[in-house]
Specification:
The complex is a heterodimer of chains A (112) and B (112). With 112 residues, chain A is mainly beta. Chain A contains no helices and eleven strands. In chain A, strands 2, 4, 5, 6, 9, 10 and 11 form a seven-stranded mixed sheet that branches. Chain A has a four-stranded antiparallel sheet with strand order 1-3-8-7, with no helix packed on it. In chain B, strands 2, 4, 5, 9, 10 and 11 form a six-stranded mixed sheet that branches. Chain B has a five-stranded antiparallel sheet with strand order 1-3-8-7-6, with no helix packed on it. Chain B is an all-beta fold and 112 residues long. Chain B is built from no helices and eleven strands. In chain B, strand 7 and strand 8 form a beta hairpin. Classes of the chains: A mainly beta (112), B mainly beta (112).
């Protein structure tokens, strides 16, 4: 697997609490993405980054923010978690000039 | 934006039979079409892809066909084996940082 890790791998939290998920890559790829995966919806893009400090919204960005202060790290923050944000979150990376995205192992988040 | 529809949502086949999964897309600018396989509890992994200048591509028991005029592409798995059981996602990429749209997935079950 491409050098992508996600932490934590599992998390249970309560409604209203902030949550930060981390994606770390060792590939030095320019592009990084956060997706959520829910039954019947496939993979939906939350936010993406095209460089350090360069980020933009995807199709389901409400309630989420991101930051990328270093090439290797892309953080996803749920400012105030809601039950609708219970999901599996995948990070992906892509090398500049190539199309293929490689996924991290995922984080399973349960918001009670 | 791009819309990718994938059918069927579930598919059961006998071991040794063929399986076909079909996807349609809406954006005529899409020019790259990857297929991902996701085993239970694992990350999506690229199994095959095709670019718009090619009509068909094969890799051992897996093949993908593309009809740009009709805006549809298909995954064909021949001589299915139990280890082919997984969820398969198609996607369409129209270029740029974030222009990958995924289908909703097909759960393939290969019955021994």
């Amino acid at each position: 697997d491409a050098g992508i890790t996600q932490s934590p791998r599992h998390k249970v939290t309560e409604t209203g609490t902030p949550v930060t998920l981390r994606c770390h890559q060792t590939e030095n790829h320019r592009y990084m993405y956060w997706y959520r995966q829910d039954p019947g919806h496939g993979l939906r893009l939350i936010h993406y980054s095209y460089g350090v400090k360069d980020t933009d919204k995807g199709e389901v960005s409400d309630g989420y923010s991101v930051s990328r202060s270093k090439t290797e790290d892309f953080l996803l923050t749920l400012e105030s978690a809601t039950s609708s944000q219970t999901s599996v979150y995948f990070c992906a990376i892509r090398e500049q000039g190539l199309e293929t995205q490689y996924f991290g192992p995922g984080t399973r988040l349960l918001v009670l | 934006g791009e819309n990718v529809e994938q059918h069927p949502s579930t598919l059961s086949v006998q071991e040794g039979d063929s399986a076909v999964i079909k996807c349609t897309y809406s954006d005529s600018a899409s020019n790259y079409f990857p297929w991902y396989k996701q085993e239970l509890g694992k990350r999506p992994q690229l199994i095959i892809d095709i670019r718009s200048n090619v009509g068909e591509k094969k890799d051992q028991r897996i093949a993908v066909t593309l009809n740009k005029t009709a805006k549809h592409f298909s995954l064909h798995i021949t001589e299915t084996q139990p280890e082919d059981s997984a969820v398969y996602f198609c996607a369409a990429d129209s270029g740029g940082y974030q222009k990958v749209t995924f289908g909703t997935g097909t759960k393939l079950q290969v019955i021994p």
